[in-house]
Amino acid sequence: MIRNFANKVGLITEKSILLKEHIAHPRKEKQAKMQTAINYCNAKTFAVNTKLEDVFTFEHLYESAKKCCRNVRWKTSTQNFEHEMMLNVHKLKKSVLNETFKSKGFHQFTICERGKTREIKSLHITERAVQKCLCDYYLTPVFTPSFIYDNGACLKGKGTGFAIKRLKHHLHKFWQENHTNKGYILLLDIKSFFNSINHQVLIDIVGKKVKDPKILKLFAYLVHCFGGECGLGLGSQISQVSASIYLNKLDHYVKDIKGQKYYGRYMDDAYVISKDKKTLEDLLEGIKVVLGELKLQLSPNKTHILNLSNGFTYLKRKFRLFENGKLNVKPYKPNIRRYCRKYKKLLKKNLSREKLKALEITFKGYLQEFNYIDRYTRRIIYGYFKRTHTWLDF
Question: What does the pLDDT average to over 107-112?
Fold first, then answer.
């Protein structure tokens, strides 16, 4: 019965994932590299020729403001801004171009996400529009071409799903090259990443590409609004973009200088796969030096060199590469239990089925990502959803 339930949600497949499904075509890889080189040259020209007046046009600010109003129209500040949007956008544009724009501060609150307490700094709608316009129409076009392909954070078409696919691709490529699972993986985690980003170091990095002093001055002002010498607040777009820019030096050190092919990063979580453990140990010392220049430190409790054959955990998923090249990806057990507890808590509130449908779809989509699931996890899912929540359509 449990096996039939698991089959219905797509947890068990009769055949393992074929190797060729995870290997990119050489021609496509070559085309991607050529396009990256073209975009890089265009970005350098764009950075030199673009001025503050070209970025903060009325059309750009208006489109940015409309996007910022989505899903937050219940806020009074958003309703007031949207009521006279044309006039407010005109005033906002005038204040930015005259260099008189001032931040209205943050609304700070705490959330508990995946067992971690996070401090969120919510912006006023006007500052969100300015940040979005600056990021979408200048910072992203200028800096994105210089990012490595395996940087999976805060970019269009990328995210945790992309980072997981690249890790699978690297594991399969490693097995195809060596025909064994006898290798090692270096897992990296930066200690208090967002709270440790140094403002002056970030501004110096951005200043190497930003040629217009007015744009750089606005960027520096938005960064210093978070207060202190270090730290970027969660909840703003400029924090996400700046985090990707800040660690770009680390990416190119590992990929270009050290020549590590099997490297990927999602925000402050990164990995390097190699056949030789001594290579990873030497690389780790070099990474510490690079992070020291950025005034960052690795988390000693989350930075490890592990054996591929024993399995490892990355981005809340458990990976294991077998001797025959088969790759198993298991769900992280605390995530399963967290979903189940959330269902149970919501059911006690007597919510309608329609309101719970969104969480049900999210959970089913999360489970269908895996081509394998162990008996213990199936038992947890079956016990919660078949015995307690009989209304679910599994």
Answer: 74
| Cα 286 to Cα 254: distance, rounded to the nearest angstrom | 9
How far, in Å, CA of 243 to CA of 193, rounded?
8
With residue 319 as reference, give the H or E element that holds it: strand 317-321
Backbone angles phi, psi at 392, to 5 degrees: -65, 140
Contacts of 10 (CB under 8 A, 6+ apart): 367, 368
pLDDT tens digits, one per residue of 61-71: 999 999 999 98
Answer yes or no: pTM beyond 0.70: yes
Helix axes 333-348, 353-368, angle to 10 degrees: 170
β-bridge partners, 319: 312, 329
The three-state secondary structure class of 302 is coil
Tell me, letter by letter, the H, E, C secondary structure of 340-371.
Answer: HHHHHHHHHCCCCHHHHHHHHHHHHHHHHCCC
Q: What is the rounded distance in angstroms from the CA atom of residue 149 to the CA atom of residue 278?
A: 26
Residue 324 DSSP label:
T
Phi, psi values for residue 152, rounded to 5°: -100, 20
How far is 242 from 244, CA to CA, in rounded Å?
A: 5
The answer for residues whose C-beta is within 8 angstroms of residue 304's C-beta and 6 or more apart is: 186, 187, 312
| Cα–Cα distance, 165 to 150 (Å, whole number) | 10
Q: Is 131 helix (H, G, I), strand (E, B) or coil?
A: helix
Asked whether 260 and 151 are in contact (CB, 8 A), the reply is no
